[in-house]
Amino acid sequence: MIRIQNIYYMLSYAFQVLNEQGYKQVATEEFDNVAELCAAILIKGLSLQIKRGLGKEYVVQSEPLSSLRGKIDIAASIKQQSMLKKRLVCNFDEFSVNSYMNRIIRTTMDVLVKSGISKDRKKQLRKLLIYFSEVEPLSRESINWKLQFNKNNQTYQMLISICYLILKGLLQTTSDGSTKLMDFLDEQRMCRLYEKFILEYYRKEHPEIRASASQIPWDTDDDYREMLPVMQSDIMLKSVDKILVIDAKYYAHTTQSQYNTNTLHSGNLYQIFTYVKNLDTSNSGNVAGMLLYAKTDEIVLPNNDYKMGGNQISVKTLDLDCEFAEIKRQLDDIVQRYFDCS
């Protein structure tokens, strides 16, 4: 379980823009479900973005024109018989608000307006849609989420991420074509947020250690690594002489059960052990690993520390169904215990 308000705090660490003054009101609101929370964040974010100005980009336009512009499309001109009207089809670039990111946002707004969120938020969205009158919606299924962000469009990163959560994790289409709210974000979407939240929390709250999501090189004897898979850590915490690798896991079940016996997920344990042993090339024992599961309401929950080949491997849970101050304490305790921080 996780409190809805805590999802806002998790998003605030994942996307620091939510800590700005314009979002303070959202932080104090009570929400019945995550979709209402995400809709509120999107509305506030779009209101701020509209004040800054909607982002524009060069978009290819194709139109039959009486005067030349850009490049002539002969094939299209013949097909449309535009020459009979003394026109030629021209392809040209136009600096337009009909950018791909704005189209994703327009699509999300259209879907939310038809969903089960509150009437008040629908009313606010309809007011904002006026500014998107020149923006064409996309098909939800065809959206390409692999977008590049830079200093010119970085204010869109959080907005697009909220759109992703809404379209992929919170809304589903029923058999009659209508849209309804799901009770909660699915495991895949929550897992990504859970990982990013923990990483960004340590980056912000513990500058005394270095927090990153670093790749781990294979410790091969001859440096030959052809075709070896990439080892990508979720969170790597480093001090001068110690390393803690954390694999953040958000599952409905933190353990696997067979014949009334609960055991750890073997794949997860093998993975964290592999990370640690390939990092600790000198066998110093100063590299540790942790599987950090989001706590569930199961009776049996892991809380174990193992010594494996000279390295510490821990399996813990993080309780997200509590006051956020308690979540902070749990995360701080991990650093204090391992890095001996006061």
Largest sheet: 6 strands, mixed
At the first level of CATH, what is the class of the largest domain?
Alpha Beta
Tell me, what's the shape? Answer: globular
Secondary structural class? alpha+beta
Q: How is the largest sheet built, in terms of strand order?
A: 6-9-10-13-15-14
- CATH topology title of the largest domain: Trna Endonuclease, Chain: A, domain 1
| Helix content range | 25-40%
Q: Count of helices?
A: 10
Overall mean pLDDT stands at: 88
- Poorly predicted ranges (pLDDT <50, ≥5 residues)? none
Run of helices and strands: HHHEEHEHHHEEHEEEEEEEHEEEH
State which percent range the strand residues make up. Answer: 15-25%
What's the end-to-end separation, in Å?
Answer: 31 Å
Q: How many separate domains?
A: 3
Q: For the CA atoms, what is the radius of gyration? A: 25 Å
Q: From the 3D coordinates, which CATH architecture of the largest domain would you assign?
A: 3-Layer(aba) Sandwich
Number of strands: 15
List the helices and strands and how they pair.
Layout lengths: L3 H11 L9 H5 L5 H19 L4 E9 L5 E2 L1 H7 L7 E9 L3 H14 L5 H11 L26 H15 E3 L5 E3 L5 H19 L4 E3 L2 E2 L14 E2 L2 E4 L4 E7 L6 E3 L2 E3 L2 H14 L7 E8 L9 E5 L2 E8 L5 H16 L3
Parallel strand pairs: 10-13, 13-15
Antiparallel strand pairs: 1-3, 2-3, 4-5, 6-9, 7-8, 9-10, 11-12, 14-15
Helix pairs in contact: 1-8, 3-6, 3-7, 5-6, 5-7
